[in-house]
Automatic annotation (TrEMBL):
<feature type="domain" description="Aminoacyl-transfer RNA synthetases class-II family profile">
    <location>
        <begin position="7"/>
        <end position="325"/>
    </location>
</feature>
<dbReference type="Pfam" id="PF13393">
    <property type="entry name" value="tRNA-synt_His"/>
</dbReference>
<dbReference type="GO" id="GO:0005737">
    <property type="term" value="C:cytoplasm"/>
</dbReference>
<keyword id="KW-0547">Nucleotide-binding</keyword>
<dbReference type="Pfam" id="PF03129">
    <property type="entry name" value="HGTP_anticodon"/>
</dbReference>
<dbReference type="InterPro" id="IPR041715">
    <property type="entry name" value="HisRS-like_core"/>
</dbReference>
<feature type="binding site">
    <location>
        <position position="113"/>
    </location>
    <ligand>
        <name>L-histidine</name>
    </ligand>
</feature>
<dbReference type="GO" id="GO:0004821">
    <property type="term" value="F:histidine-tRNA ligase activity"/>
</dbReference>
<comment type="similarity">
    <text>Belongs to the class-II aminoacyl-tRNA synthetase family.</text>
</comment>
<dbReference type="InterPro" id="IPR033656">
    <property type="entry name" value="HisRS_anticodon"/>
</dbReference>
<dbReference type="GO" id="GO:0016740">
    <property type="term" value="F:transferase activity"/>
</dbReference>
<dbReference type="InterPro" id="IPR006195">
    <property type="entry name" value="aa-tRNA-synth_II"/>
</dbReference>
<keyword id="KW-0436">Ligase</keyword>
<feature type="binding site">
    <location>
        <begin position="80"/>
        <end position="82"/>
    </location>
    <ligand>
        <name>L-histidine</name>
    </ligand>
</feature>
<dbReference type="InterPro" id="IPR036621">
    <property type="entry name" value="Anticodon-bd_dom_sf"/>
</dbReference>
<keyword id="KW-0963">Cytoplasm</keyword>
<feature type="binding site">
    <location>
        <begin position="262"/>
        <end position="263"/>
    </location>
    <ligand>
        <name>L-histidine</name>
    </ligand>
</feature>
Amino acid sequence: MIQKPKGTADIFLQEAEIWQYVEETARILLHDYQFSEIRTPMFESYELFSRGVGDTSDIVSKEMYDFYDKGDRHIALKPEGTAPVVRAYVENKLFGPEHPKPLKVYYISPMFRYERPQGGRMRQFHQLGVEVFGSVNPATDVETMALAWDILKELELSDLKLVINSLGKTEDRIRYREALIAYLEPFHDELSKDSQTRLHKNPLRVLDSKDKRDKEIVAQAPSILEFLSEDSRKHFEAVQEMLQALEIPFTINSNMVRGLDYYQDTIFEIMTSSAVFGAETTICGGGRYDGLVQEIGGPEVPGFGFGMGLERLILLIKDQQVDVPKLSELDVYVVGLGEVTNIESLKLVQNARQAGYSADRDFHDRKAKAQFKTATKNGAKVVLTIGEDEIKNKQVQFKVMSTGKEQTLSLAEIYADFDKVYKTQTADMTAFNEFFGKED
Ligand code: ATP
Ligand code: MG
């Protein structure tokens, strides 16, 4: 038996309905915020990520699925979405005068990271991400964070908190880096192995170490917020003021850094302490990356974006028992009794579908009772029954399930205008539902 690769998943039936619900809900909101979709390849040149994400990041140094293709090109399956979108932005000159400014794009895509699989951590996982190019206005930071917040709220998720921080500009970080190294060096031997290596390579990453002793040490470390330049400090204050104006609750954690090297100024995470993950877990993370477009060979254009992990989001949906509307709603079920009805059943479901109704039928020549059971189980609103007599008389039994009303109708009438027949026959049902406040 060949099995799926470790850290991957098959998604089907009810699980797939949750995915569709999440994606459709998000797409509607993304449209409200005037984002348009961008689709980039599943693989890119390795160099895009080593340059765009950073050689010292975990993603590039440990987690990348990379290989040489038959033409000896160094390729990587995309581990994140920002670098590819920036590459596409530069390559297609989306900064040109004919394109909207700022340019707001989103993607929903699989990502690949070689990690140790566990709850909410996969080797192939999915991110919903957005990128905004060309605005330094702190309102861009805030409306983009508000979008992430809104998506989670629209899905009726609770137990979420928004955490923000500022990483300042490169010069601020260079000064902070020195102060941080000076603070950490005396603790060198007490730090975890990972943090010891990071101490000089990428000391900011020591701040988000998950090791217990590391955490105690960094709790007293100097804060990056004290190293911000005037501009960055003002920007960060404006962000806070605007979040307050929108009444979006947030906390500041000056020890929060992000896994990717390209961030500047505002960064944020939306976290949950839901028990499904064991420890506090990030669902969505992002921030401002004002130097990245240039790094990838484009003009000096600022950016702001986030990536939201859909597996984690869906674990939350299940844990919090969010009501997921049923997508596979069924309007019409055709009950065909006897072999002779096979073709007519086929024609009847096709006729209903062509009139815009969802329709299904029995394929196993089962007894009437079994077929009605399926119709009820699938929530069919209307059942059309045909047997030998109906075939002979060119008729069909049309039953409205909610009222139990059944009528004999001619096949000719059904085929002439199914929409009209359906609406006339179900008029009572609609009135009944309206009276009792049910949706059609
Ligand atoms: P973590 O610290 O949990 O590894 P990260 O900092 O590597 O997260 P990002 O690169 O910021 O994560 O990706 C944004 C989001 O994508 C995460 O908050 C998470 O929801 C999701 N994500 C990242 N890696 C995985 C993975 N291996 N499996 C499932 N979801 C993931
Ligand atoms: Mg990670």
